[in-house]
Each structure stands twice: as C-alpha cells, then as structure tokens.
Design goal:
- 26% of the residues are buried.
- By secondary structure, the protein is α+β, with helices and mostly antiparallel strands.
- Strands 4-8-5-6-7 form a five-stranded antiparallel β-sheet. Strands 1-2-3 form a three-stranded antiparallel β-sheet.
- 41% of the residues lie in helices and 13% in strands.
- The chain is elongated, with a radius of gyration of 34 Å.
- A hairpin with an 8-residue loop joins strand 1 (29-31) and strand 2 (40-42).
- It has two domains: 2-94; 106-238, Alpha-Beta Complex (endopeptidase fold (from Nostoc punctiforme)), CATH 3.90.1720.
- Helix 3 (106-117) packs across helix 4 (126-136).
- The longest helix has 38 residues, at 57-94.
Length: 239
C-alpha cells in the first residue's frame, strides 16, 4: 500500500510540475503592444538565454499542447505502474503460503467421515457417500445424480476445489473424479483419507476399475501445497 501511495504521490508531483511549467511559459511572456507584427517574446528554460520569438497564438497553443501531451504520457505510465503493483500485491495475498492441514481442517473432516462410512465392498453409491462426507465438512454445493458430474458441472470448483496434476502425491481430502464410460455411465468419485482412497467402500488402489480410465484430481484451494499432513490419518479417528 505504501508503494501505491508513493507512485500516486509522484504522479501528482509530476502533473503539478508540468502545470507550473506551462503557467511560467505563458506568464513569462512579454507582449510587444507597439509592434504591427503582433509578436511575442519570452525567456525561459524552453528557449535560449537570449529569448525567442513566437510569431502567432497558434504556436503558443501548440507548445502548451505538447507540454500537456508529455504530462499525459507520464500520467499514463505512472498509472500503469500503479496498476501493476496493485495486481502483484493482490496476487501475493491470494497465493500466499497455504494453510496447514490438521484434523479440524475441512479436507480432513470430510476424509474422516468417508473413511468411517466406507464398506468393505462397493454398494454402487459412491456419489452419495462422498457427497455426504464433503457436506459434513462444511462444503456447500448442489448434489449431482452422477459421480462424473461433480467435475463436469463445476460442482467441486464452486465448493472451493481446484484441479491439480494427477501426478502429484495425494493429500488428505483430495477428491478424484473418474469420467463416465460405456461400462460405467455414472463415472466414479472418491476421496483420500491419508491412507487409502475411499468412496462408498475402501479401495485397494486409486482406481476402482480393472482397466485404465481417465480421471481428474481436485484439492481444496486453501491447502494447495501442504506436505505436512503425514500422519493426520491417525488423528482423524479422535472424534
């Protein structure tokens, strides 16, 4: 904020200096009323030490316009710098160090709920189980009938999740959504509890299928890069 004020202060100073220069330019003129040529003389930093002759009002107007143009260019440059600084500060605030996960964080609460409710085998209700787990942690969204729609309809994004690389190490509370296919028309959704992937059942692997299917990984934007969550799974069983 101090940097923005300094830039705006410099902007005001630059305009004031230009205005004073223009006024000095005009007020410093000496009019020769006795001349039939209606000429004007001035002596300033814009002319030689001997003074210069300006033959018409048009030239005076043109000189003032040039000064105004230069002042406007400086104003535009300073305004651009101020805008860039403000944008940088907003970016820094928005993408500052992520919050630290603990057992009371929303991703951990959701993962714990899913882990406790999971069955040994699939019941075919992954969307319902993961949805309830997320809502129990305070995430707000409109439920979808199919698992794949939590990604395609922007439901997770609206709830505060962002898409991350599938190659990143899983983090407590991460949600994976599998696309629908001819064999699995509703797709699949699951959440990582710190030990394994769970949905309506506890999975042996990240994929609930025997084949290879496309999927996306989603993470709460407040905890984008928290590698300190090792062992949180043990603490989640406290409640």
């Amino acid at each position: 904020m101090k940097q923005v004020l300094l830039i705006l202060g410099a902007l005001g100073l630059g305009m004031a200096q230009t205005t004073v220069a223009a006024e000095s330019y005009v007020l410093g003129q000496s009019t020769n009323f006795g001349s039939s040529n209606n000429t004007y003389s001035y002596s300033s930093t814009y002319g030689s030490s001997q003074g210069s002759r300006i033959s018409s009002d048009d030239e005076i107007s043109q000189a003032i316009q040039n000064l105004s143009s230069q002042a406007q260019q400086k104003e535009d440059r300073l305004a651009s710098l101020a805008q860039k600084l403000t944008t940088q500060q907003q970016y820094t605030q928005q993408y500052s160090a992520p919050a630290k996960l603990n057992s009371s964080s929303a991703p951990a609460i959701a993962a714990a709920r899913a882990s406790r409710a999971a069955h040994a085998r699939s019941t075919g209700r992954c969307a319902q189980y993961v949805r309830k787990a997320l809502q129990s942690a305070g995430y707000e969204f409109t439920p979808n009938p199919s698992a794949y729609q939590y990604a395609t309809r922007g439901t997770l994004a609206q709830a505060g999740f962002v898409k991350v690389s599938n190659g990143m190490a899983p983090q407590v509370g991460d949600v994976v959504v599998y696309d629908r296919s001819s064999k699995h028309r509703h797709g699949h959704i699951q959440i990582f509890d710190g030990s394994s992937w769970v949905s309506d059942f506890r999975q042996d692997d990240i994929s609930p299928y025997s084949g290879s299917y496309a999927y996306t990984t989603w993470r709460d934007s407040r905890y984008l890069d928290d590698a300190s969550n090792r062992g949180i799974y043990l603490a989640m069983a406290e409640d």
